[in-house]
């Protein structure tokens, strides 16, 4: 690859040139080589694209896109969704804790192996199970009602925005 006196392939220097870390004189040598060597030229262009891409990310292109998306979402609907999602997570956790009370469940085995925490955890699990038995059906109903309400709100927002669009 490295012929004395001839053009030399040096990927490290190609990367350094693309990152702008090479002194001007060495940079000119590498650029000379790039003119004659397609494979190093390809490497150089790829590295340039890569650093441009990473530079864009650092400057904050993605956060600005996220901000636009977040601003485009109707915040009230978002709030309702987050609320019901939170309830769903609570329900899921309660169900998992209740399942871990079953001796054949792998989760119970894991809890067993923790040993020192078992008493504490099982105490918590009993409380959670009692809570689930008492509040589980109510939570499920609340979740269902919430989903219907969410749909109703979405429908109202949709029809209002359509009427506004027609009036405008
Ligand atoms: Zn080369």
Automatic annotation (TrEMBL):
Segments traversing the membrane: 82-101, 131-158
Keywords for this protein: Membrane, Transmembrane, Transmembrane helix
Alphabetical list of Pfam families matching this protein: zf-HC2
Putative zinc-finger domain segment(s): 15-40
InterPro entries: Anti_sigma_zinc_sf (IPR041916), Znf_put (IPR027383)
Domain of life according to the entry: Bacteria
Annotated protein name in UniProt: Putative zinc-finger domain-containing protein
